[in-house]
Design brief:
With 255 residues, this protein is mostly beta strands. It is 14% helix and 36% strand. It has 3 helices and 12 strands. Strands 1-4-11-6-7-9-8 form a 7-stranded mixed β-sheet. The protein has a 5-stranded antiparallel β-sheet with strand order 2-3-12-5-10. It starts with a helix and ends in a 10-residue tail after the last strand.
Length: 255
């Protein structure tokens, strides 16, 4: 994929540029926005906004559905890529842990996130950060400027993508083939947990420092994405409620 097309897609996913985002003061932590509090159907929970790639990609289908008595988001991708985004303002020094549940029904056979041409994932939770653009190396500044000229929007200062990988080990940090400001962190790997719900808790503060070698700035948005556009295959995933926590033990209060 052309890297500017990729950048346009990424910007849509983490910044929600197609639609004006809701005010950030609506966010009440620890919960970002509970899917489980809504009725299954076509309408998405307040604050979560669909994004597509302005005709560049076939969109993935997202819908609130019932799964064993609980409302969750179902994502179905057939050679498609789009997602849902929610603007937030989170200080990881206060809320360092990101908690969610997800379920994938199978892996993408041809996916390999170390290669630009096969960079698909059945499930992603994407965290975008604010930051001082003047600190970026010259090459990244040039890329960001070209991207802004091409898309009329700005890339986030940095992005962590938590992915369900096919073979890379959990905890591995995979650099994007397109820019050093995007790092993928393997939150789940392989087929062992496919077909059932799996709980994830990640220390975003520490993951960011490990990926970028600096203290993390404020988080500006969170997104979910299921994509299989590069491989041309299909993917089927479910996402449960998402929360930013002060401690990993706090998650038990959310059930």
């Amino acid at each position: 994929m052309n890297k500017f097309v990729f950048a346009a897609a990424l910007a849509a996913s983490v910044a929600g540029c197609a639609v004006a985002p809701p005010a950030v003061d609506r966010v009440q932590l620890p919960d970002v926005a509970k899917f489980s509090e809504h009725v299954p159907g076509e309408k998405l929970p307040p604050g979560w906004q669909p994004w597509a790639f302005a005709g560049l990609k076939k969109p993935t289908e997202y819908r609130l559905v019932d799964d064993s008595g609980r409302t969750v988001v179902r994502a179905i991708s057939h050679a498609s890529a789009s997602g849902l985004v929610y603007p937030v303002r989170v200080d990881t020094r206060v809320h360092p842990y990101l908690h969610w549940h997800w379920k994938v029904l199978g892996l993408i056979d041809g996916a390999d996130n170390t290669k630009a041409t096969t960079e698909d994932a059945p499930a992603r939770v994407i965290v975008a950060f604010e930051g001082d653009m003047s600190k970026l190396p010259f090459g990244e500044k040039l890329f960001f400027q070209q991207f802004k000229l091409f898309t009329k929007t700005e890339l986030p200062y940095a992005t962590l993508m938590y992915i369900w990988a096919k073979r890379q080990p959990v905890g591995a940090v995979i650099p994007s083939a397109h820019t050093s400001r995007i790092k993928m962190v393997v939150a789940e790997s392989g087929p062992d947990h496919t077909g059932g719900w799996h709980e994830i808790v990640r220390n975003v503060h520490e993951d960011y420092k490990r990926a970028f070698g600096e203290e993390p700035p404020l988080i500006k948005s969170i997104a979910i994405m299921t994509d299989s556009d590069n491989t041309g295959e299909s993917a089927h995933a479910y996402y449960g409620d998402i929360a930013f926590l002060r401690s990993p033990g706090e998650r038990w209060q959310l059930r």
